[in-house]
């Protein structure tokens, strides 16, 4: 059975024109949408992902075809699939994952890929070399991915890396970078308020107002 065609049939059957208009507007018309809300969308391919986990093998051909689509639902499927199959991902898959990060870009996909690369960085130190390069990338979405990759790490957070990646990106006028810096600081403040408070104090003049506001939320 062609899994892509199966997904397509399910997405089309569940489509909603009114929701589609709302979703496309929310995404600033960067993508087309069938108009399927997240819980319903995930139910449509729940069994497909379960089957993939049983097979313990990533179907890159299916994922690549889905990523080429103009419809955002296929991209979300790829991301949900990769999160579910994260235990099977290795450093050797980074070039494929990087392709996804550099294409069909928007904050919703980048922030999921952030988790995927973050998980990989805990398994293989070589991933950190890539993230370090991306923290200086011309593409601000790649810099955002690098800055945020330790979200949720708590005691596993490498504060030297967190500090380095943030300071490499201070002075930016890009909203999504300054927001990412704030979120990275805010997230770590849940575990270590003192470190974040000291960091903001020491670099107050370098950080944007947005980064300071977001980073100080739980202090």
TrEMBL record:
It holds the Pfam family DNA_alkylation. Transmembrane segments: none annotated. It comes from the Bacteria. InterPro entries: ARM-type_fold, DNA_alkylation. SUPFAM superfamilies: ARM repeat. This is DNA alkylation repair enzyme. It comes from Streptococcus agalactiae serotype III (strain NEM316). The lineage of its organism: Bacteria, Bacillati, Bacillota, Bacilli, Lactobacillales.
């Amino acid at each position: 059975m062609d899994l892509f065609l199966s997904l397509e049939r399910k997405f089309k059957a569940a489509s909603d024109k009114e929701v589609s208009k709302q979703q496309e507007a929310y995404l600033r018309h960067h993508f087309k949408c069938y108009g399927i809300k997240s819980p319903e969308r995930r139910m449509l391919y729940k069994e497909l992902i379960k089957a993939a986990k049983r097979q313990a093998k990533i179907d890159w051909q299916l994922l690549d075809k889905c990523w080429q689509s103009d419809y955002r639902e296929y991209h979300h499927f790829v991301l949900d699939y990769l999160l579910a199959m994260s235990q099977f991902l290795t450093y050797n898959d980074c070039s494929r994952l990087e392709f996804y990060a550099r294409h069909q870009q928007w904050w919703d996909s980048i922030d999921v890929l952030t988790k995927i690369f973050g998980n990989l960085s805990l398994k293989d130190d070589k991933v950190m070399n890539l993230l370090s390069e991306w923290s200086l990338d011309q593409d601000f979405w790649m810099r955002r991915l690098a800055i945020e990759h330790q979200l949720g790490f708590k005691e596993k957070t490498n504060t030297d890396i967190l500090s380095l990646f943030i300071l490499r990106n201070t002075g930016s006028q890009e909203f999504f970078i300054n927001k990412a810096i704030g979120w990275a600081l805010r997230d770590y403040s849940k575990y270590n308020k003192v470190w974040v408070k000291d960091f903001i104090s020491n670099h107050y003049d370098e950080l944007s107002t947005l980064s300071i506001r977001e980073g100080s939320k739980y202090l």
